[in-house]
């Protein structure tokens, strides 16, 4: 099913002349995160903010470690005994910098606020995401 979703997304990109990178970081990322958003908001409103906050970090961490780890193991096994060469792209560096900024910022702000999450930090994180999306779209549109 994921393969068909990607094929449909690629077809839409070709028809509308959008870069696959732009579609991936917007439409696919948002679609992948809507379920988590609904679940986390429902948990927070039900009086379980600790579980909601843990879910905000645990879900993406699981996706990165298990999803990316499995894909890399399969690809590495496919090219064995040669090394798998990962192509460098500036978008990967930008994504890593923004991820590091948001995670380290969250660690510092939440620790500084005695393990409470201030409202302003939620707005800051949304701003970081908007800035990341704008920078990533600018990079994707100039490189492809």
Automatic annotation (TrEMBL):
It comes from the Eukaryota. GO terms for biological process: sodium ion transport. Keywords: Antiport, Ion transport, Membrane, Sodium, Sodium transport, Transmembrane, Transmembrane helix, Transport. It is a multi-pass membrane protein. The chain crosses the membrane at residues 7-31, 51-74, 86-114, 120-140. One of its GO terms (cellular component) is membrane. GO terms for molecular function: antiporter activity; monoatomic cation transmembrane transporter activity. Residues 4-137 form the Sodium/calcium exchanger membrane region domain. It is found in: Membrane. Its main location: membrane. The keyword Membrane applies. Belongs to the Ca(2+):cation antiporter (CaCA) (TC 2.A.19) family. Cation/calcium exchanger (CCX) subfamily. This is Sodium/calcium exchanger membrane region domain-containing protein. It comes from Miscanthus lutarioriparius.
């Amino acid at each position: 099913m994921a393969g068909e979703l990607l094929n449909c997304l690629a077809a839409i990109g070709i028809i509308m002349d959008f870069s696959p990178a732009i579609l991936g970081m917007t439409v696919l990322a948002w679609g992948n995160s809507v379920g988590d958003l609904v679940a986390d908001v429902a948990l927070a409103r039900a009086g379980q903010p600790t579980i909601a906050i843990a879910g905000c970090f645990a879900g993406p961490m699981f996706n990165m470690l298990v999803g990316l780890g499995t894909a890399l193991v399969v690809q590495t096994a496919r090219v064995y005994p040669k090394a798998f060469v990962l192509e460098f792209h500036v978008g990967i560096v930008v994504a890593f910098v923004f991820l590091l900024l948001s995670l380290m910022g969250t660690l510092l702000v939440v620790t500084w606020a005695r393990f409470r999450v201030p409202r302003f930090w939620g707005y800051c994180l949304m701003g970081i995401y908007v800035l990341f999306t704008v920078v990533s779209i600018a990079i994707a549109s100039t490189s492809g």
